[in-house]
Write a structure and sequence with these properties.
alpha+beta, 4 strands
């Protein structure tokens, strides 16, 4: 599954415009992915100039904790 590295996201919004199913929005200047809408096409990952949109295989424990807790209210 894709996820946003909040430390790397600069809030440019490119991913929002490129998502084919409108699963990405901006919150507090950062991209947020609605996992219920996401079809895992990887388009967001491909277009992000900062490589802030990552995938599960790229996680480390610190990022897992930070992103899971920031997404509690996005479900």
């Amino acid at each position: 599954m894709p996820w946003v590295d909040k430390d790397e996201c600069v809030g440019c919004g490119i991913c929002v415009g490129e998502c084919p199913v409108n699963a990405i929005s901006m919150k507090n200047g950062k991209a947020v992915i609605n996992m219920k809408k996401c079809i895992r096409c990887k388009k967001c990952h491909e277009v992000c100039p900062k490589k802030a949109i990552r995938h599960d295989s790229e996680r480390n424990q610190k990022e897992v904790y930070k992103n899971e807790n920031s997404n509690k209210f996005n479900r």
